[in-house]
Amino acid sequence: MTSLPPHLTPTITDRGFSHLPPVPCIWGMSNLNVGQVSVYESSAATSAALWLRAENFGIAGDAKSETTSHLQVADALRLADQLVRAVAGQYQYRGNLLGGGLRAQADQVTASIGEMLELLNAAGEDQT
Question: Which domain holds residue 58?
Answer without folding.
Answer: 6-122
